[in-house]
Amino acid sequence: MTSTETAGQSGSSSSSPFQQTKTDRDAAPQFVLPLVARIERAEPPARTDALETAARAVLMLLSDERSAGDGEWAEAVRAWQDARIRKVVRRARGAEWRRAEALPGITASGDRAEVRVYPPVPLDGWPKDLARLQVSGTELDDPKPPEAPAEGLPVLWLNPELQMSAGKEMAQVGHGAQLAWWELSEEERASWRAAGFPLAVRSADRTHWEALTRSGLPVVHDAGFTEIAPGKTVAAEGGSRFCPLPGGRRP
After folding, report:
1. Is the pTM of this model over 0.85?
2. Tell me: the pLDDT tens digits for 58-68?
3. What is the mean pLDDT of the chain?
4. For 189-241, what is each residue's pLDDT tens digit?
5. Which tens digit of pLDDT belongs to each residue from 31-75?
6. Rounded to the nearest 5°, which phi and psi values hold at 40?
7. Whole-angstrom distance, CA of residue 216 vs CA of residue 208
8. DSSP letter at 125?
9. Taking a C-beta distance cutoff of 8 angstroms, is the pair 235, 208 a contact?
10. Residues 6 or more apart from 98 whose CB is under 8 A from it?
11. What separation in angstroms does the CA of 239 have from each of 149, 151, 242, 243?
12. Neighbour count for residue 136 (Cβ, 10 Å)
């Protein structure tokens, strides 16, 4: 199964570049945010660990000083956010990972997972060492079911009715983290960043999922270009201290 760019998502704002309806964003030059997951044959990371690490990687890129103001990545980040928000997850191992790690970017680390995120690039302008990487081969499993999220932790909830590859889910939770980031004040963002972007990724049960999607929280709508039909994929629920979103969990 493949994980490729996902566009046309809809957050809580009608001006969100994640929305499905055709807008001027479609006429703008299209960029993509590359993410590379390290998946060694002998010791692949657990699925949930990889998903949470991918979401943090996106937040680290968004919060990095190089992505703001006159930073060296700022122009590319602005161009990416002015168009459809696209993310592509590829996998690397061994020498591939070492080459990918040498390119300008940020590596997020989990328990065992490593995901490197790069400044946005044009759809047809990938660096050679990233373009040659595969989007397939990102199938991962959890050795045991993940525990319930810690109290007060922000959670990216996956739609329980969908079957997606791990790579596709990494892109989706990255979208969810980005929608959450946009909802926060500068003070809330600074607090979340200082704590290392604590978050959890879990699959919701059907009843909880229905409640989440009616709660006013940010919800990702996939355009249905790859793997799944168009629809809702991730809901971002804020914690009581970090990432406190409207309608999210509070004390």
Report:
1. yes
2. 999 999 999 99
3. 88
4. 999 999 999 999 999 999 999 999 999 999 999 877 788 888 999 999 999 88
5. 999 999 999 999 999 999 999 999 999 999 999 999 999 999 999
6. -80, 145
7. 14
8. -
9. no
10. none
11. 10, 8, 5, 6
12. 13
Strand arrangement of the beta sheet that strand 155-158 belongs to:
200-203, 155-158, 231-237, 219-222
CB distance 204 to 235 below 8 Å: yes
Farthest CA pair distance, the chain: 48
Phi and psi at 235, nearest 5°, equal -120, 135
Distance CA 211, CA 56 (A): 25
pLDDT reported for residue 247:
67
Neighbour tally for 27: CB within 10 Å:
9
> Closest by alpha carbon to 181, among 70, 37, 73, 81?
81
Read off the DSSP letter of residue 6: -
CB 25, CB 82: distance < 8 Å: yes
What is the H or E stretch that residue 56 is in? helix 47-63
Q: How many other C-beta atoms lie within 10 A of the C-beta of residue 209?
A: 19
- What pLDDT score does 107 carry? 98
Q: Please give the structure tokens belonging to residue 126.
A: 């990938």
Between the two ends of the chain, the Cα-to-Cα distance in Å is: 41
Residue 212: both structure tokens together: 């989440």
Q: Cα–Cα distance between 192 and 34 in angstroms, integer?
A: 23
DSSP codes of every residue in 59-97: HHHHHSGGGSTT-TTHHHHHHHHHS---EEEEEE-THHH
Q: List helix spans (H) across the chain.
A: 47-63, 74-82, 95-102, 128-131, 166-183, 186-194, 206-213
| Residue 120 CB partners (closer than 8 Å, separation 6+) | 31, 32, 33, 34, 73, 76, 77, 79, 80
Q: What is the DSSP letter of 163?
A: -
